Amino acid sequence: MSRKTGGIMAVPAMRQVHFYKAHSRIGLTNAPIRQTDLNTGVEEGAEAVLTESFLSAFPEHELNEFSFSDPEKIDKDQYWKVLAKELSDFKNLINSTLKQDQTQLVIGGDNTVTFSSLSALIERVGRTEEIGYIQFDSHGEMHRYGTSLSKNFHGMYMRPFFDTFDIPEIEQLVSKKLKSSQAFAIGDITFDGEKSEEEEFFKQNIRDVTREEFLNNRISVRKEFEGFCKSFKYLHINFDVDVFDRAVAGATGIPEDGKWLTDEVMDLIKIIAQNPNLSIDISELNPKRPGAEQTIILAQKLLTELLA
Q: How much is the pTM?
């Protein structure tokens, strides 16, 4: 990442960053599909990534924290009301503390945190047509509640931004929607259930690049992705570490679904980093799972590349 200037190695300037630690597993009311536990520990992901040594690379950074309620402590009859309030509270925290020249960077936590971070960007920008949404993930995250098998909000949080959502408390939080042409997904998406409603919606509306397509058509995919990134003044990057192969990043909720390797993802990250107006969130890193140290280092590497 360094470059030579007059024979001296110069370190590139870093963005002015405002970090947000989002302690969350509120979107996990039930065990994820094909899993036996609630991914307990994912709420500590931000603490694991934003270490003192990592933050020292950003001497002028600012940092805030937000803790969502533990799902088992919420009355089931009040869940959606509590969730909606806390999603709004976190969004408001971001927009009341973020300075104009700062890059918003949220570290989760389960994927629920993305709802607030993207909502904050939309509220600040106002003109949704200027926002491009990039999703690195091995899952679609676009279930409706009525057709979801797990009933976990962490697999539904993106649907309200692209369609009408079937939970009124959540639907009313998204007054400004995005068009499907504003989304670009990278990942080998695993859908729950055979020919699910989510799969039908996702495949009809969202551009998704699989690892096989990328490896077979690297030049054309890069060109298409560059064109997408240049089409928008603002980019929001939603990065779930389970996009990676489990040998690369095993400390995540459902590690067996990811396929991508580090250099392949970094190739696309470098394209994103050229945009001056980024909003970023990283989620689903669980420091209590095997492979935690390797996964944490990888997450820090991704952030350093995006922020330089």
A: 0.93
